[in-house]
Amino acid sequence: MIDRTACEIRDENDPLRAFREDFVLPEGTIYLDGNSLGARTAGAAARAHEVVTNEWGTGLIRSWNTAGWFDLPVTLGEKISGLVGGGSGSTVVTDSTSINLFKAAAAALDIQAEDAPGRTVVLTQQENFPSDIYLLQGLTRQLGDHYEVRLVDDEVAAGLPTALTDEVALVVLSHVNYRTGRLFDMAATTEAIHAGGAAVIWDLCHSAGALEVDLAGSGADMAIGCTYKFLNGGPGAPAFIWVSGALQNRRPQPLSGWWGHARPFDMAADYTPAEGIRRFLTGTQPVLSLSVAEVGLDIFARADMAAVRSKSLELSDLFMTLAEQRLPDHPIEIVTPREHEHRGSQVSITHPEAFAVMSALIERGIIGDYREPSVLRFGLTPLYVGFTDVWDTVEALRDILDNRSWDAPRHQVRGAVT
Amino acid sequence: MIDRTACEIRDENDPLRAFREDFVLPEGTIYLDGNSLGARTAGAAARAHEVVTNEWGTGLIRSWNTAGWFDLPVTLGEKISGLVGGGSGSTVVTDSTSINLFKAAAAALDIQAEDAPGRTVVLTQQENFPSDIYLLQGLTRQLGDHYEVRLVDDEVAAGLPTALTDEVALVVLSHVNYRTGRLFDMAATTEAIHAGGAAVIWDLCHSAGALEVDLAGSGADMAIGCTYKFLNGGPGAPAFIWVSGALQNRRPQPLSGWWGHARPFDMAADYTPAEGIRRFLTGTQPVLSLSVAEVGLDIFARADMAAVRSKSLELSDLFMTLAEQRLPDHPIEIVTPREHEHRGSQVSITHPEAFAVMSALIERGIIGDYREPSVLRFGLTPLYVGFTDVWDTVEALRDILDNRSWDAPRHQVRGAVT
Question: N6-(pyridoxal phosphate)lysine (modified residue): where (chains A, B) (predicted)?
């Protein structure tokens, strides 16, 4: 049997332990919601102060050049690209995940109209994060309902060939399901989609920074994702978009603003898209939020993603094992896949009173979140979560469940995005 | 003749003088580029620190509710609405000006397709800020080139009836021209556009916070604008969108993300637009940039916009008078209209060597900006620019021009947006 001491020893021997110093968490808090909003980075406050006082206050308008503000989307994009196997010159940080999906899907459908004309279905998961579905609905409605957004459940999506009829132009998949933590095999799934004649956009919101991603190696077409979950960019920090080199210059995207113009300072009256990934930019970006997001990305420059993934799986293995050993008599079900190759960086457990149970955990300083319906969701971020944290969480859960020490919901637990 | 002492006396008697304390400018700097990037607000650093350390660091995911993060677009929107005569519940702060124009124009064309079918022209100014034109081009391209973006020059736009044929579905106008400072009469122009059967979207980037705007009273349909110029929201702070009450619930806009959903936390698979202005939201917003932008907006709660406008005109009158009196022998032309009713809050002066001249001014600590072609642009922000600043600027300009003390361009002076 595992005990707390064994967990303490694992923490002591954890090669990623030093990264805990890169984050500031409130005393006494176990934070298992980094897959909704990553923890505060230790350098964030100083960076924000520098941007406000020096770059804005002293540099003023000159900082668009001298402080590199204008290039922040590309500067940060390069750093993310290194984490997701995107290759240089293929990623920008800008706008929101939802808006980036609109750009990507619009460009992808435009390209497919040339490469595979007559296909009219956009396929996505019923269980995808709803905003992804909503954006696809908004896009296809705008295109005159020429296209149909077809929802399939995760099982069908995983066994894609049955759903991949020759009507399908585009598939949009969340690499890791926000609710269950189910992970797709990116390379195999991309290959199946391409074999079926469709293009694919991957939503990396729950995988970027959590596990090794190899976009270019998987032959993916496009990807989007956020920076404020496992990448610790800060609340609502701008999102990213990646487009494969082969597709970047095929078509402009419809949100064709001046930041995506070939010569933005010429003030020409006609839009000429920039070559490369810059054409996926639109308008002026929130410098302060971008700059603080960079602090989170810079931490990853020192982190070995293989080690991050390895610890993530050890943490979730431990969580599942303890849940089975110590919560045997309760109506719980672990809905996160047991197989490593199908698991993201979280453990999701259903319980009929999940909302109240999570509220009770939060009252004890253990912050996970609740997801409809009936899911207790625990995000495991290897850079600042330890094995003892997992032990203490399961023990608190056991105590709450054993003693039915929950009452009416006191917290409305809303997630930032997914 | 005016002299510097007369300017000093005017500063002493300036009823807005106390607002200078709400801003922090570098010692020895005269800042006349607040129409590109407003000055640092005195409260910005403390607000950024609070958001990073307390709201993010301590509140963590809970701050989406407890710190009001989720409602920031509406909270800030209400504050802007009060400045532009929008009425309550009609404005949100979100995304970029370019993206908000896409949403507004898409919704407006959708509505016009019902109300005035068969109209296929989107009319805008040749002299509009280019990104507005680019976005309209992107939108109409996406709509299958059913629509044509037609550019007319400012003179034609001002005498709209000649351009307002029965082909015109939508007119998009910058309330104040970013280059020349020319101001449209919003009420009269809106009336003419409506009489011609078209809808209008106003771009308020160069008027919000600079002069009194009465969107609802003018009968306008929609408006967009940024928060980082005269509203001093900080570099790249999110933009705003206003939609008249009569149009808000007519159609959804195509960037239909979960923040615009009627019940965003239900995680339903179908998009149902929220009632009211919230449907113009899309995805998660950059909290840090939004929070610091609020500091700028809160300053206006204490400012009388009539007094702001009055001082703005006094400053630009003084600038023009001094330029005429003290720079008589130089090849300059004031391109900003002399008539108050046609003037925004800037003075633009052409000179054949404008780029080099502006570089020389900046070397002396007087920051204006250069705009293609040949324009020296001086933004006049009444909350922190004084009459003596104008005197000193024209004197520096005189010295530079008299002595031809400019040389090859040393600064690349790029503006943030317009």
Answer: 229
